[in-house]
Design a protein that fits this description.
It is a single chain. It is built from 21 helices and 19 strands. The protein has about 750 residues and is an alpha+beta fold.
Length: about 750
């Protein structure tokens, strides 16, 4: 403190320096000693831990009754203390107490009388104030900008600072920034009801706090305090409990999961009356409340189009209220509240709301029935939660993990033939319930051994390419053995007996070959037990036929350049018998046999495999060598009959070469030479009339010889490089041999 200032104070007190110099000196010394002691206390430790500058500031700013001099120090200054008992005076006002500065938004100091306010430090952020507790950007105790004046004049909606002052009071120079709410609503389990519910024990304290400050009381949620019924947004909060967790259910859509109370009160969401989606989102699963996460917009599935009045693939409240019909939003918080809801079967059996009709795999299904309800399978498939047997299905029933039919799961093995391991993988969707029996999906029947030769469920139970397990294509075959193995053989992919002696048989169910059906031999495969019968129980296994000579482009052995198309031909037959008929053929060129039925299918030349009783079936296929490495291959061919009996393998040899080209012209004295021989290792050609030539040859480096004897000397060009599929151009000049004149007489002897 400067001496001049002290003298001025002394003069105001009536002391004249010239009249009493000794007393003035003593008084000044006392003030200096007090100041030094205060500073010394800072360095030696004070109860507050304030900085020296702050101690100097508050040595003057201590008049709680400003503008009166309440502490009788002859200095009148407003009472001020460090904000939150931690923000020292110089942090906001610089260190010179006689030139007060004001912190600005950029963190610098200005001399004007205004400075940053509550929102700028606690919401926008000011440099050097990173430790200030930050509140969410919506602020204002609500996401509606008019919230502060919607039902009264609580704060000025255009100035965020007024909202802070309404609850906290002006606490810039106060060690307790929580302000007026400190006494009745600080982070307890019913902070919301302290202000908004008249039944709270602290409600009257709250009213006194705001009324004494000349402020309107917050809106009361049950009687409305004058605005009940006068505002369209009013909702009568007649609840079974008035806890913060219950308030968060409707007003907490903007806060994080398990948010603390300070976050909630600074980021309250305006509750949307009649708004399903606004409340039932993934961040509403509050611990300890009765509210559950109901939907997740990103995985709502096909039910997003339950109601398309607002557009397709757009989830709106209309989609919700279509299923949750006759809904009364004002009653949803009442004890034991329920809403009427459409069930799966109401929509999917009759096609209501354009729902796909479920024909099978449902109770009383058209062809395939079940005793279990929709949610048993769908909830198992989606691993979600359910509040009723329909809830998870309705919200997540089209999840990608839903069990789908066989034909949508695995690519059909080559040629349609497979062993039991292949079939198990191919049938895994069906086996998930039926083999072994899976009680998690109700009480599905056990189906072990299929009746079909390829062992795939969809041979009989998918009439067309099914999109799901429910549509009409999941049928049960009708008719007897011959019907399935003749006119419907293609439909059910059954061995076709047309043309064989067995086509006229009427005793398939006799004890001779296939045994007796368990349903008294009615020749209809209409029971699950018949799926489990070994159709070769009498030990008959059949015998394959024969494969004839294999040809490649009509040759038993063939050499081609890489990229050539090779036609493979042969013929196959079946051993004579009452059920003798060719079923197919295949080839493979790998060094290891891929397994019967897993080669590359061949086609019948006449378009249908129908040769019977050892008659030959001509078969063909094409092989593109573009994808084959250069080398030698054995092309193996074999046939199969309708009972999956395979013939022996016959083969032919294919050599794939890596060829390039040498193209050019042979000339002498500027003219093309016809008939010249151009040769390199294992390749040769002859020049055309104009001297041009084209030589196909394997990749490599060659000496190329051009020769036309006896007229010309040979020309040998060394180091000619040839690469696969590329052309090397070569111009060759041959020199003519010297000529002379031969004269004489030809006589007859």
């Amino acid at each position: 403190m400067e001496r001049g200032s002290i003298v001025g104070i002394i003069e105001k007190m009536g002391f004249q320096e010239r009249k009493n110099r000794i007393f003035s000196t003593i008084f000044i010394a006392a003030i200096v000693i007090i100041s030094l002691v205060s500073i010394l206390m800072v360095f030696t430790g004070t109860p507050q831990g304030y900085t020296p500058v702050t101690l100097v500031c508050i040595s003057c700013h201590n008049d709680s009754g400003f503008p009166s001099d309440t502490d009788n120090n002859s200095i009148i200054a407003p009472y001020k203390r460090p904000h939150n008992d931690s923000v020292m005076c110089e942090t906001c006002h610089r260190s010179n107490p006689h030139t007060i500065g004001f912190i600005q938004r950029n963190g610098l100091f200005g001399l004007r009388s205004t400075a940053v306010s509550c929102p700028e430090c606690h919401q926008t952020g000011v440099p050097n104030f990173t430790s200030a507790p930050m509140i969410p950007p919506r602020f204002m105790h609500g996401n509606n900008i008019t919230q502060g004046s919607k039902w009264g004049s609580y704060w000025n909606s255009s100035r965020l600072k007024t909202a802070c002052i309404y609850c906290h009071d002006n606490t810039l120079h106060n060690i307790t920034p929580v302000g007026r709410i400190l006494g009745f609503a600080l982070r307890n389990s019913s902070s919301c009801s302290n202000c908004h519910y008249k039944g709270n024990a602290n409600y009257s304290i709250m009213i006194n706090a705001f009324s004494s400050a000349g402020l309107e009381r917050p809106p009361e949620i049950t009687n409305g305090t004058g605005w009940n019924g006068s505002e369209s947004g009013y909702y009568n909060h007649t609840l079974d409990q008035y806890s913060n967790d219950r308030c968060k259910m409707c007003h907490g859509s903007f806060i994080s999961l398990n948010a603390t109370m300070p976050e909630f009160v600074h980021n309250v969401s305006e509750a949307a009356g009649g708004e399903c989606i606004g409340c039932h989102t993934s961040n509403q699963n509050m611990t300890g409340s009765l509210f559950f996460e109901g939907i997740n917009l990103s995985s709502f599935g096909k039910h997003i189009n339950v109601n398309t009045s607002n557009g397709t693939d757009l989830l709106t409240n209309d989609d919700c209220t279509t299923c949750h019909y006759d809904f009364n939003f004002s009653d949803m918080m009442l004890p034991n509240f329920t809403t009427r809801t459409k069930t799966c079967t109401e929509c999917h059996i009759y096609g209501n709301f354009s729902a796909p009709v479920i024909s099978n795999h449902r109770p009383n299904g058209t062809s395939v029935g079940t005793t279990t309800y929709c949610s048993t399978c769908h909830n198992n498939s989606i691993n979600k939660y359910a509040y009723s047997v329909n809830a998870s299905v309705g919200h997540y029933g089209t999840n990608a993990s839903l069990v789908k039919p066989t034909v949508n799961q695995t690519a059909r093995p080559v040629n349609g033939f497979m062993d039991s391991a292949d079939a198990s993988s191919y049938n895994r969707a069906c086996n998930n319930c039926h083999n072994p029996k899976n009680t998690s999906y109700g009480n599905p029947p056990l189906i072990t051994t299929p009746h079909t030769p390829t062992a795939t469920c969809n041979q009989c139970h998918v009439n067309t390419n099914a999109t799901d397990l429910h549509n009409a294509s999941i049928i049960i075959p009708g008719g007897g053995c011959i019907d399935c193995h003749s006119v419907n053989a293609s439909r059910y992919k059954a061995p076709n007996l047309t043309g064989t002696d067995m086509i006229y048989s009427s005793f398939c169910d006799s004890n001779t070959c296939h045994g007796t059906y368990p349903d008294n031999g009615n020749n209809v495969i209409d029971s699950l037990g018949e799926h489990n019968i070994n159709r070769y129980e009498r030990g008959y296994t059949g015998r394959g036929g024969y494969t004839d000579t294999v040809y490649l482009n009509g040759q038993a052995a063939l050499t081609v350049p890489k990229g050539a198309i090779v036609t493979i031909t042969s013929r196959v037959n079946d051993t004579s018998g009452s059920a003798s008929r060719v079923g197919g053929a295949e080839y493979y060129y790998t060094t290891t046999d891929p397994g019967q039925g897993k080669g590359i299918p061949m086609n019948a030349v006449d378009g249908q495999f129908d040769a019977v009783n050892r008659a030959w079936e001509d078969v063909t296929a094409t092989l593109d060598t573009s994808g084959l490495p250069v080398g030698t291959y054995t092309i193996n061919v074999r046939g199969v009959d309708i009972g999956k009996q395979w013939s022996q393998v016959k083969n032919a040899t294919l050599i794939v070469q890596s060829l390039g080209y040498i193209n050019g012209t042979v000339k002498s004295s500027g003219s093309g030479i016809a008939g010249a021989s151009i040769s390199a290792t294992n390749a040769s050609t002859t020049s055309a009339v104009d001297g041009t030539f084209n030589l196909s040859i394997s990749s490599g480096t060659y000496n190329v010889t051009a020769s036309k004897q006896p007229e010309y000397y040979d020309n040998i060009t060394s180091g000619v490089v040839v690469t696969q599929s590329n052309t090397t151009t070569l111009y060759i000049v041959i020199i003519g041999k010297p000529t002379g004149t031969l004269s004489g007489v030809v006589r007859s002897i």
